[in-house]
Amino acid sequence: MSQTASTTARKPGTPPKRRTPRLLTVIAARHITPNMIRITLTAPELGDIPAGCEGAHCKIMLPEDGQSAGAFAAQLADGPRPVTRTYTIRHARPERQEIDLDFVAHGDEGPASAWARRAAPGSFCGFAGPGPVKLTEFYADWYLVAADMSALPVAAATLEAMPRDAKGVALIEITSEDDRQSVDAPPGVAMNWLLQPDPHAPSDAQERLIRALDWPSGTVQTCIAGESGVIRALRAFLHNEKGLSKKETYISGYWKIGLVEDEHQQMKRAEANG
After folding, report:
1. DSSP secondary-structure letter at 131?
2. Which residues contact 49 (CB under 8 A, 6 or more apart)?
3. Selection from 227, 148, 161 nearest residue 189 by Cα
4. In terms of domains, do 148 and 72 share one?
5. Is 238 inside a domain boundary?
């Protein structure tokens, strides 16, 4: 082994150096519904992301107002860590070095929504990921998908990845009737769009409808995500009352009424360790 190799090799057991987040550039931004903004982003490194990563989460790092791309790239490399939020890859086109991310549009209420509202070709952000796809195998006799606007991208990506002969039910809460999206779900999955005009008000609509379902026999797989209060109730019902195994139930709280993401992530870590 050369002297250079011996001094740069990572010691056994030492975690690998964290990769510098990639700098992505906006090439398109548009409202796909009144309350959802789709941002198309590009960078040469996106040619290396895995095909079929729709539905995987990623981290988006946001520049400060007026910050130059050069200064932001330096910050990504050297710190401090920019404001960071978690999003879902809605579409991935590695052959074109592109991804689509969908942002719930709620004005300047949060930093990500504010950034997306102002985004235009030439805007930029940082990117880390993608993480793992939530459902990689589809073997159930019946599927249950439930989401609010925040989790609509993972729900839609999961429905579109299902076998064409899949059967099940999808429940998606939207802010207005015009927020319905075109989702290429299997014909055997019944799509239900639930109107929830105030997403910051507690809702039990999903739980009531899921409890009222004519529950099928056989294996059930789920993809359920959204507000943590809703998720807690659904998790208790599915695991404790219906006896579904954790292996078959992807169910995750993406946000909580009254908390910003950093506070919500801290709450989730405390619950996991409690």
Report:
1. -
2. 92, 94, 99, 130
3. 161
4. no
5. yes
